[in-house]
Design a protein that fits this description.
- With 279 residues, the chain is of the alpha/beta class.
- It has eleven helices and eight strands.
- It has a six-stranded mixed beta sheet with strand order 3-2-1-4-6-5, with helices on both faces. It has a two-stranded antiparallel ribbon with strand order 7-8.
Length: 279
């Protein structure tokens, strides 16, 4: 008689069965292509409570179980000041999905809200610092974040449209402030639309960012509010109707950069001009 699977096992199975082509294969391929995981790694999987980080946790759990590479996992969740409902939602999801998460507290929401304006950049930097510090205290050498292919594309376009620069998002990078620590993004090749389908297929409910700025555009009439990322999402959706390969093409373009066609570029903080190669 076949053993009845738990809810967590069914959700995990959906990744390697129903969404194998859309999620599992690009997840594994990204880990291999960018050499994200090495023998003996101790990786802190960072859970924010959203769909992306929870999917990452489930994928990492399964990979650890079947991989020929031996590595350890720690699952951590920083509470930056969630309200009671959001904290409970995260706890319940982790329990249902059998993710042994360790919570720790910070005051990031209260600090960033006091600066005024839209402090998303400051919030992200503070979050990362706290995550690095916690991971290092647990003996980890890497932190894994849930950024996916859509994040990479949107960040690239946001830099062009609003930052006057061509700047992408790397799948792995060394920390400049925490010696011996590295950040990895195992969902780098996974499209957000696949994650949404996986979430809905399993009838899962996750929190949003939970800060007041996300709440602002989530409840605005046009669904955009003041978020530039939401504007970019909407633009990509419109472009996809004309060109279904638009996301693939943008993603491939950041891996096919022709530096000799650029007027100027920066490398290691040093500016270079095309004039350097002319008499």
């Amino acid at each position: 008689m076949a053993r009845e699977l738990s809810f967590a096992q069914l959700v995990e199975r959906s990744i390697i069965k129903t969404y194998r082509k859309e999620i599992w294969n690009p997840f594994v391929e990204g880990c291999k292509e960018y050499r994200l995981i090495s023998e003996g790694d101790r990786i802190a999987v960072c859970i924010s409570g959203g769909k992306d980080s929870v999917l990452l946790a489930v994928c990492m759990k399964h990979l650890q179980r079947i991989s020929d590479v031996n590595f350890e996992l720690k699952f951590i969740c920083m509470d930056p000041g969630y309200n009671e409902a959001n904290r409970k939602q995260i706890e319940e999801n982790c329990k249902r999905l059998e993710i042994p998460v360790e919570f720790f507290e910070s005051d990031i929401f209260s600090v960033t809200e006091s600066v005024g304006g839209s402090p998303c950049y400051l919030c992200a930097r503070m979050r990362r610092g706290h995550l690095y510090a916690k991971a290092k205290s647990l003996g980890c050498n890497k932190i894994a974040l849930g950024h996916h292919l859509s994040d990479v594309i949107e960040t690239t376009l946001m830099g062009m449209f609003y930052g006057s620069q061509l700047q992408a998002m790397l799948p792995r990078l060394e920390s400049t402030n925490f010696e011996g620590m590295e950040l990895i993004r195992p969902l780098y090749c996974v499209n957000e639309r696949a994650i949404i389908r996986w979430r809905d297929y399993n009838s899962l409910t996750f929190i949003q960012c939970a800060c007041r700025f996300v709440d602002e555009y989530s409840h605005s009439e046009d669904g955009i509010g003041s978020s530039k990322r939401q504007e970019i999402k909407k633009l990509i959706d419109e472009l996809r109707r004309v060109n279904p390969d638009i996301e693939h093409n943008i993603f491939k373009s950041i891996q096919n950069v022709k530096l000799d066609t650029f007027i100027a570029y920066k490398q290691d903080g040093i500016e270079h001009s095309f004039l350097e190669n002319l008499p």
